[in-house]
Amino acid sequence: MATSNPRTPLPSRIVMAAIDMSVSGDLPLGIATSLGRVFAGFAFAAAIAVPLGLAMGAARAVERNVDPLIETFRPIAAIAILPLAILWLGTGTAAAVLIVAYAAFFPIVVNTLAGAKRIPPTLLRAAATMGLSRFTTIRTIIVPGALPAIGVGLRIGMGVAWTAIVAAELAVGAKAGGGGSGGIGQMMFIFYAYSIELNRIIVCMIAVGLVALLLDRGIRTGMRLLMPWGVA
Amino acid sequence: MADAAAVTAAVDAPRRRLASAAVYLRTMLVFVLLWWALAAWTANPALLPTPRAVAEALVELIGDREVFMHAGISLGRMLIALVVACALAVPLGLLMGTSPLLDAIIDPTVEMLRPISGIAWIPLALFIFGIGNALPLFIMTYAAFFPILLGTIAGVRQVDRRLVDAARTMGVPQRTILTRVVVPAALPALLVALRLGVASAWTAVVAAELIGAPSGLGYAVEWYRELLMTPQVMVFIGVIGLLGYACDRAVREVAARYTPWAAETRAMA
Amino acid sequence: MSAQASAVPDDIKLRLVNAGKRFGGSAGTQTIAVRDFTLDVRRGEFLVIVGPSGCGKTTVLNLLAGLERATEGSVTIDGRPIDAPGPDRGVMFQDYALFPWQTVWGNVGFGLAHGPAGAGLDAAARERRVRDCVELVGLAGAEAKYPHQLSGGMRQRVALARLMANEPDVLLMDEPLAALDAQTRMIMQDELLRIWGQDRPAAQRRTVVFITHAIDEAVFLADRVAVMTTHPGRLKAVVDIPLSRPRGDATRGHPQFQALSQHIWSLIRDEAQRAAVT
């Protein structure tokens, strides 16, 4: 009978495993490690991508010259860069943050650019007739106008970042043979390769899903606070 | 009057393409020069090979067909995964989009599974399938399924109600309305969903092959990394990017050819 | 007046008796779009319904089309109750609702290809009818074009041709000229009357129920004008338009035309003002 094997996944066993992992601190620690890397990488990516996207949206010359680079590297998924990142930075947190930043960069810059370009030209003309300087126009019209699109970019970027960190930690865990830098992805791999704890793997999967949801909600709430005027 | 504008546009179009191609080459040239300078400065071929080393590796890998072999394997897997994902997601999406009851029943399950990315399934899938062909196929199918399903549902929902009403006033039966009105009207959105599915599946292929497959582009990247042969690593990474772009382009071309009327299609171009 | 569905005078095509339409759930949250609407539409007449925005004109049309069901009263055609849409009552929608993936030819022939109007016609007969309708609306030569390649006026002609191809008894039109610029509008008004058959004897014309908010359009096109009130929609008055047919540019300048327009405007005026501030 399937249930006689203590390793077979069952809802009750999954719940037990979840409680056990939470109480022992393994699960919170793993999530916290992964989240820390995600936030760091995401912050780097956003700090570069948002200004760059706005600049590209505001000045055609910038867009024309930078766009080829973006379009060339965008199809190369972050996970494909992982081996390079490991080559350069080893299997630690630095490589993980790099992967996350790379992954989050593209959705943020693409959406920011689209948002900046989508500002109705009539608004810009109104600004010109009011005699606003280029910088003021960017600050008071383009940035608020592009905010919804930036929000979309940040949400997608966060989702991609989270997926990327799990993948990266999984891959590192697989290659580094279990010793490594922690994080939930690596935990999953250990449970597969070393202790074959299916219930724990499933707990991790559910945790991954829940965190993804929470991150998404978090960004959406954040954007709503930033945009009290609602979206037209 | 409309014809004069069309003529001008037709004459301008090749010129514009030429101009944008020139800018593209110029930017890439700058990039390569910077790369070369950086490589010369670090002088560590395992860390950062020169552009020339990468070019040589590329020629070699093309010559002994290795690139084609792995690329073919990865593409083949993606194709199968897409066919399976579409076969599952499109009919389900059509049903869920048109029947609020069905949608209410299935949606909670979808919403629960969706945030668990395909990647997170890898350990469990490794356990079930082991290392081999089945693993990447499963992961890719799973990765492609959700974007295609959700996009199909959205596509069906955004079909203009007036089109369905128009068909009803002509006395067209309900079943015919579904096949002859709803599906064609939703087609542009379906193709957008397909694009997203392709992108998702192609990303998943690399992850899956990196971790659990004995062949394919992801595997090749890892293989050469372990040998510290960085030029080859870069070649394969470049091929992954190129093929990802090509697949996306292919879907866009299909959309342009078969749904020329759609604003979505024009926005994609 | 009780709704005796069978005892309908011969010259009445469509009849609404105390018709009403309510939307929404429980009693507190319902919207009443139309209330107590009683109107006869005569065979072969061109009846125009005018009223301020949001007064329920479109709902009345939907009731006649069978796209909505009346929650009170009755709606009948030739004495039979209307409870579903069908090709006998062709509808022209405000945004034309053309199938973007079909050419002009495909659009016009759609009802014949897939609906009951084409039953009993072989391929050659269908082709002939489509061709005739395309010519009737003045689009010969554009058959292979797609809607996105056509101007607003041309799209409207396609919608009209698609309608006519199913040989409906009744034409229901919901502000079909609203999206056109003023000049195209006037041209299309003339075209509409020509296609309807204002040059032909009255017996050969189809029944038309036409909705607009433009009073001059109503007076130009109509045999009778029904004026609606707003919130909830009710019939305020029916005005006869005795202007002679065929009508054209001369009609628009005629003093009687102005007088009738003024009269109808005075009927609508306060309703329109109320609608403008709510």
Give a summary of the structure in a few sentences.
With 232 residues, chain A is mainly alpha-helical.
Low-confidence regions of chain B: none
Q: Spans of chain C with pLDDT under 50 lasting ≥5 residues?
A: 1-5
Order of helices and strands of chain B: HHHHHHHHHHH
- Count of helical regions of chain B: 11
Query: Rg of chain C from C-alpha positions?
Result: 19 Å
Give the biggest beta sheet of chain B.
none
CATH architecture classification of the largest domain in chain C: 3-Layer(aba) Sandwich
Helix content of chain B: over 70%
Number of strand elements of chain B: 0
Number of domains of chain C: 2
Share in helix of chain C? 25-40%
CATH topology (fold) name of the largest domain in chain B: MetI-like fold
- How many domains of chain B, as an integer? 2
Structural class call of chain B reads mainly alpha
Q: Which two chains form the greatest contact, residue counts included?
A: A-B, 46 and 47 residues
- Structure summary, number of beta strands of chain C: 10
Which CATH first-tier class of the largest domain in chain C would you pick?
Answer: Alpha Beta
Tell me the name of the CATH homologous superfamily of the largest domain in chain C: P-loop containing nucleotide triphosphate hydrolases
Here the CATH topology of the largest domain in chain C equals Rossmann fold
Which sheet architecture does the biggest sheet of chain C show? 6 strands, mixed
